[in-house]
Amino acid sequence: MRPGGHRGVPHTADLRVEAWGPTRAECLAQAVRGVCESFLDLTGAVAGRTREVLLRADRDEDVLVALLEEVVYWLDTEDEVPVEVELVPVAGGLRARLRMADAAALPVTGAAPKAVTLHGLAVAHGPRGWTCAVTIDV
């Protein structure tokens, strides 16, 4: 299986992130990193606070949306972004442990995310591991 990673994909007026990983948790964590790296330079970012979140959803796509909505929420309300993401499967969803950094202390490289859209949302498991794709309104 290939190691985890992510990439931004050109998309009209929005941000499109594709991510992959050997496990569902790694794939989703890569999606978070891809979104955060789309608007901030995380090089040297230091986590100062840990946020624990329980994400309940029946479908993998809904878990991805809930996870990224947490990223947008903490950015909007506390000006924090996750620089480390640990995801543990639980019955009916995931437990997320987000190690947060102060977004204001990091160099801005793009437009901040405003919302997760459902257009083109995908999470899949195949012979090479997990993949996901999401569009973010910026």
Short description:
Helix content is 24%, strand content 42%. It is α+β, with helices and mostly antiparallel strands and 138 residues long. The strands form two sheets. Strands 1, 2, 6, 7 and 8 form a five-stranded antiparallel beta sheet that branches.
Structure report:
The chain is of the alpha+beta class. The protein is built from 2 helices and 8 strands. It has helices spanning 24-37, 60-78, and strands spanning 5-9, 14-21, 49-56, 80-90, 93-102, 115-116, 122-126, 129-137. A hairpin with a 2-residue loop joins strand 7 (122-126) and strand 8. Helix 1 runs parallel beside helix 2 (60-78). It is globular.
Give keywords.
single chain; 138 residues; alpha+beta; five-stranded antiparallel sheet; three-stranded antiparallel sheet; 2 helices; 24% helix
Number of helices: 2
Into which percentage range does the β-strand content fall? 35-45%
Mean pLDDT: 94
Low-confidence stretches: none
Structural class: alpha+beta
Shape: globular
Largest sheet at a glance?
A: 5 strands, antiparallel
Quaternary class: single chain
Helix content: 10-25%
